[in-house]
Amino acid sequence: MISSLHRPTLAKVDLSAISSNIKQIQDHVPQSVKTFAVVKANAYGHGAVAVASHTQRLVDGFCVSNIDEGIELRQAGIRKPILVLGVVLPGEVPLVRDYRLTLTIASLEWLELAQAKPLDLSNLLVHIAVDSGMGRIGVRSLAEANDLIAGLRQAGCQVKGIFTHFATADEADDRKFQEQLAFFKELVAGLDYCPELVHASNSATSLWHSEGIFNALRLGLVIYGLNPSGQELSLPYKIKPALSLETALVHVKKVPAGADVGYGATYTSSQEEWIGTLPLGYADGWTRDMQGFDVLVAGQRCPIVGRVSMDQITIRLPQSYPLGTKVTLIGKNGDQLISATDVAQQRGTINYEVLCLLSDRVPREYK
Ligand SMILES: *Cc1c(COP(=O)(O)O)cnc(C)c1O
């Protein structure tokens, strides 16, 4: 999708907030721990190339979810290791090698399939995924881990790391977390060959579970300045949200009592009211369930009234404002603040999804 540059709707990304969040986390873990910045899904909507370019001196590598995201970074000149967190089918190995990406290998079946083709796996960089209880990908026993590592090494792969992923590191109840941690620790202790990098720490683990860090971090949401638990757990130190979403009034009118607004006429003015129109909608990621939530105009909360359309939303204003008046959807305006977590609460979802769903139609502006 082409980005719409000639509308006042834009996401402002403060790259220095991202680098200071990374430093803040690094200051709270042992110095020997390596840092991988997770920039999958276009860096959670912040722009993968911009974020990776700005942070590459601070980190030891990046994580993406698939090879196309890795190739985008390589083509932009990123040289650090890039770990692909998802499973890549063996047929793509030549491309992975061309771009010097690091693959996640999640089963013995993958290796057997690659060898049956046959594929040249020599010098392929790999990490082993361990399923300690998340239930998505990875080996589920020590025997499979040992067989897989031995087989990969025999095929000439460089087995650089082994990792697992926690399902509940962002929750107050840590029973499931402790079970996964114990399983992974025992598996690592039993390995015939232990790779250099052992990692299990997403943002939540790095914030609340120092015992789950091992020797590398995979930091996603926290570097963008948001709390991975939403509001369940409080942050042990300050981090700064990097993204704000702004637009401007493009139409303002006074309507009499009894005027309908929007598709389905779901809103009817109860008195004479000022209604403003904003140039964004669900095609920008401002989903229909935002009806009834607020935006910020001149430091005041103003409700979204009527349905959210594909490209426009309507708000109720306390008075008339000139066209071009700034409107904040995520971020600060005067003394008021709407966070991505507040937006998520309204939608019954998580802040991660709010950021990832901002579409390519919204330009990203960097400072
Ligand atoms: C997305 C992802 C992360 C980062 O998670 P955050 O909660 O954003 O820190 C880390 N590891 C894996 C395997 C992931 O898929």
User: What is the name of the CATH topology of the largest domain?
Assistant: TIM Barrel
Share of helix, binned:
25-40%
Q: Distance between the terminal alpha carbons, to the nearest Å?
A: 23 Å
**How much strand?**
25-35%
Oligomer: single chain
CATH superfamily of the largest domain: Alanine racemase
Structural class: alpha/beta
What is the overall pLDDT average?
98
The parts where pLDDT drops under 50 for at least 5 residues are: none
Using only CA atoms, what is the Rg?
24 Å
Shape, principal axes of CA atoms: elongated
Overall CATH class of the largest domain: Alpha Beta
What is the number of independent domains? 2
Name given to the CATH architecture of the largest domain: Alpha-Beta Barrel
| Biggest beta sheet summary | 8 strands, parallel, barrel
Task: Compute the number of strand runs.
Answer: 20
Number of helices: 11
Walkthrough of the structure:
The chain has 367 residues and is α/β, with parallel strands linked by helices. The chain folds into two domains: 210 residues, TIM Barrel (Alpha-Beta Barrel); 96 residues, Lyase, Ornithine Decarboxylase, Chain A, domain 1 (Beta Barrel). 26% of the residues lie in helices and 25% in strands. It is elongated and about 80 Å long. Bound molecules: pyridoxal-5'-phosphate. Pyridoxal-5'-phosphate binds next to helix 9 and strand 9.
